[in-house]
Design a protein that fits this description.
By secondary structure, this protein is mainly beta. The protein is built from no helices and 11 strands. The chain is globular, with a radius of gyration of 14 Å. The termini are far apart.
Length: 127
């Protein structure tokens, strides 16, 4: 099993920054592609960013390109999401996810591409 715990959310003014962390345990962290999703009240859970097993490839939804950066630190079993130039529309609960299927050869952008999820961390951006 893979357990994920997010942290780093909070309240920030528009234009500010936050760094989210996702700590993984239970299995070899570097074996899995990882992603961040977010869900605003009353909305679906949407893809934000993903990173390949090696960390050599990253992917972002268009609305966060140039503002958010996903990275991973295998030694610490942690994935990060650095969020800069935050906007009120970034307000959501942010979830970390792991793709546990060994045979997958692509990094998914859909919630059902991921099998392990954290509990979420709230990010609120005020105007």
């Amino acid at each position: 099993q893979v357990q994920l715990v997010e942290s780093g959310g909070g309240l920030v003014q528009a234009g500010g920054s936050l760094r989210l962390s996702c700590a993984a345990s239970g299995r070899t962290f570097s074996s899995y592609a990882m992603a961040w999703f977010r869900q605003a009240p009353g909305k679906e859970r949407d893809f934000v960013a993903a990173i390949s097993r090696s960390g050599g490839n990253t992917y972002y939804t268009d609305s966060v390109k140039g503002r958010f950066t996903i990275s991973r630190d295998g030694a610490k079993n942690t994935v990060y999401l650095q969020m800069n130039s935050l906007k009120p529309e970034d307000t959501a609960v942010y979830y970390c996810a792991a793709d546990l299927i060994p045979s997958r050869t692509v990094v998914g952008r859909r919630p059902y591409d991921y099998e392990s999820w954290g509990q979420g961390t709230q990010v609120t951006v005020s105007s």
